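User: Here's a chain of 395 residues. Predict its fold as tokens.
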Amino acid sequence: MSDAKIKCEICGAQVHVMQKHLKDDHPEISVDEYQAKFPAAPMLSDLAKEQLAKRRAATPAAAPAPAPVAMAGSALATVSAIMPAGTPTKAPFHEVFDLGKVPAALSSKKEAIPISVIATPAHPDMVPAVSANYVYDVDELKNVILALEMSIPCYVWGHKGSGKSELFEQICARTGRGTIRVQHTVNTEESHIVGQWTVKDGSTQFELGPLPLAMMNGWVYAADEYDFALPSVLSVYQAVLEGKPLVIKEADAANRVIKPHPNFRFVATGNTNGSGDETGLYQGTSLQNSANYDRFGMVVHKKYMDKKFESLILQKRVGLHKDDADKLVDFASLVRESYDGAKISDVISPRTLIYAAQIGVKRGSWRQGITLSFINKLSKIDREVVDGLAQRIFG
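Assistant: Prediction complete.
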């Protein structure tokens, strides 16, 4: 085994363990920031890896820590063993998301794309469970991963049931990131986000809200249904969206200024892009403040999936034969085309299509599943149109 050291890409120093070097000589740079800036740079020399392997072999095995995802690659396992819980390291994008070596999952040079993962989360109970049934749009996934890697606030918007919230949830599950999802409504207040004074055990104390907790612990803060909140309330996020500390004016001195952990990320979802609801489907959303939305460095419009992917979802989640799944998706496509052509006033989502498939299997009739999960929600005129579409597909 070679005793050659590795080079620090910041100052050129030759070291064996980059994490220690950063802590001693570059305390202003976190491991996460270093790896994001220099994704190809090694974190351990061969000698350090060899010594670590010997140390592990000589130490009785401890109870395994909870892991949200089985990370691929012995190098990742080796690195994570000597780093504190919550420390990001690198793993191949296509392996983390089980994409295989399809061209879209590799770089333009046909090489693996290194992304940040947390093999040993500091708060494993905050990491979502991996769903093997979620189907990714690879290009869309790469864009969101890029935002997380660069710590750019990311907003994903689109029709109901298109998988916006689940996309972030599954990314966190696969990369070992803790996350907290906060629903927004017209009744959401600043105190619901940053915290408030409460009485506990006979004394008053400031109880931190979900945002400062996410910032302190390095979780992904998922602001769900962002466009349902009042613009005046959403202004509380503006400094945080700029990467600055959160100042809680009402808090006690210890909690007044919350600095973001290096792993903290801010993401949001909505049915609109902040410009108001042009469809009439999403009552309760409102025209938002442009200055607030301008702070999202990446905005992704999540559309309904291509037929083959939506069919695959039905096959995986409901256990349908491909031909049956294709027919259901063909029906959904006709409904969406009719909606786009202003022939009906509602659209069917993949979520509703899954319900229709599940009910259809139990009732032995796709028409029954579609009627109970979707058609019965529509106006009289829309029901007649959609029932005619179902007749064309299922007879």
